[in-house]
Design a protein that fits this description.
Blueprint: E1 2-6, E2 9-14, H1 20-31, E3 36-53, E4 58-79, E5 85-97, E6 100-123
Antiparallel strand pairs: 1-2, 2-6, 3-4, 3-6, 4-5, 5-6
Length: 140
């Protein structure tokens, strides 16, 4: 992983084997970033996205492996109750399987880089405290 600050933004290049969220969180910790957003593209080999299930208030995990193009990565940065950076990210991946182009999208849990990724991180000038909304069950 390499990154460089230009003006207020950070430009990040990830290498094979780097994990996307761990890498962004490491930069946020090192640079004391507790608010902002990030976006990116790249190529991954091992990905887990999830879907929130309101009726059970839990996430269903969806692991994928192979050549996965990270067509879109979008997320925000907050400060959690322990005072460390917290990330909330969604991503869209495309994958060619049996000559069919598949698309996978959802809440990003893990993405391991296979070739490279380019990510831009824009820190806010303020800290955003992480807060969870209490969402009622569907049908309540």
């Amino acid at each position: 992983m390499e990154y460089k600050k230009i003006n207020e933004d950070f430009y990040i290049r990830l290498d094979p084997g780097d994990e996307v969220l761990q890498s962004i969180k490491a930069i946020c910790t090192a640079e004391q970033i507790y608010g902002g957003y990030f976006q990116g593209i790249g190529a991954c080999s091992d990905v887990t996205i999830s879907t929130y299930i309101p009726t059970t208030r839990s996430f269903k995990m969806h692991p994928f492996s192979g050549m996965l193009e990270m067509a879109a990565l979008s997320g925000n940065i907050t400060k959690d109750i322990n005072g460390i950076p917290a990330l909330h990210a969604h991503a869209v991946f495309s994958q060619l399987e049996n000559e069919q182009l598949l698309t996978h999208a959802g809440h990003l849990q893990k993405a391991v880089i296979s070739y490279t990724a380019e990510i831009t991180l824009h820190p806010a000038k303020v800290t955003f405290e992480q807060r969870f909304d209490l969402v009622p069950e569907v049908g309540v």
